[in-house]
Amino acid sequence: MERARITVFDTTLRDGEQSPGCSMNVHEKLRMAHQLDRLGVDVIEAGFPIASEGDFQAVKGIGAAVRRPIIAGLARACVNYGLYYLHQKVAVGPGGVFGREFDIVAERPG
Fold it and tell me: What pTM, to 2 d.p., does this model score?
């Protein structure tokens, strides 16, 4: 009998930051991402890159520095302002952060 595998998807760096007094800068998010990696988290939702330049830099920096877990970014299902932005600006996309979801939702604008 094959054992089930549980995938841990952590949203601390995006959703957890919504709590009053829990805002983090890029350096703090990077430190937290390394700790989540050490804990064995499988997927880290690093932020909402289109929300601000700080979130954009955090997701990009975490994606470059933290190699074992999958690094994800929240994106609106609107190609011009969501998935396409992440794919082009943060340099993530099919087979990386989004995989199949990117293929289903995104069409190149223009």
Answer: 0.70
